[in-house]
């Protein structure tokens, strides 16, 4: 076990979170990450260098409490960081979102041993150690639609042995900690989280992530083959139906805002490319830039209206820090669908140049479409909203 580090030994390497210097740092990182984004998309390499830069400025521990060496960032502050990173390289931003969500909730989880909670937090501060929840399975699919995991945790003499596999393990090449959703071999089984170090013998990559968009997230399948887990690492395990540390209203607000901000950032990068391209493109038969034409001006106006709506909704949701349980999915639905529409408008107006692999707009389009696969998905959001809307008019 890593030795604890005293709070006094922690050196802050970033400016205060609400300062002009912090904004300037984020703008610099946006530009830097944008320069290498095409490389990561083309090669599907994991952006280790980007994450090292974020750790250099303590941005991987932004939502770790100040008492443990982090910045104790609020949701608006986390949103600011995610927006900046996503506008440069969204796969890096998605890994960052998972880190922020986990650490925002970790220290308030009463089911984890305090020592283990603090160890994970201090690992993030000192080493930039990443953590993520692994829940999706080949047979089950997303657990948001119900069902029990096939991944099994079996009792051993001094701990547990885990066998199974998890799909879409975002960040897997860079993770230190894996929060693995599994069920015990008991009767009746208990279900919950077993905390596994990524370097534990028996953890290996199965099928590799090879998707249309968000190609650098390293969301590989991870296979667990006779993986030993210490007893204390069964951190949040309960009988089905018992209370656990699931997402509360505040947790849902954080997830909805930060996840949506990734794809809003993609749309803003697409908007910037389109505006620059139209301003610089002067067809010979016109003799004036495309940006001077009413049709292109209206297109950019429509894009900016969508992104204005996104910004207003994200800021309002973040600063309130509370969205009603039945409203949080609507933030994700609205922002991500408007982000997709904004990029589609740029594609339609730019034509072949927009779809050329020589330009970034087609990459932004592939990336922004990935918003649709994240839980909650559109059908679930709309059905839930409709059910809630009808509830007041349905007789008991």
Automatic annotation (TrEMBL):
It is an enzyme of class 1 (oxidoreductase). Residues 30-99 form the Acyl-CoA dehydrogenase/oxidase N-terminal domain. Pfam families: Acyl-CoA_dh_2 (PF08028), Acyl-CoA_dh_M (PF02770), Acyl-CoA_dh_N (PF02771). Its EC number is 1.3.99.-. Residues 137-227 form the Acyl-CoA oxidase/dehydrogenase middle domain. Residues 259-375 form the Acyl-CoA dehydrogenase C-terminal domain. It comes from the Bacteria. This is Acyl-CoA dehydrogenase YdbM. It comes from Paraburkholderia haematera. The lineage of its organism: Bacteria, Pseudomonadati, Pseudomonadota, Betaproteobacteria, Burkholderiales. The gene is ydbM.
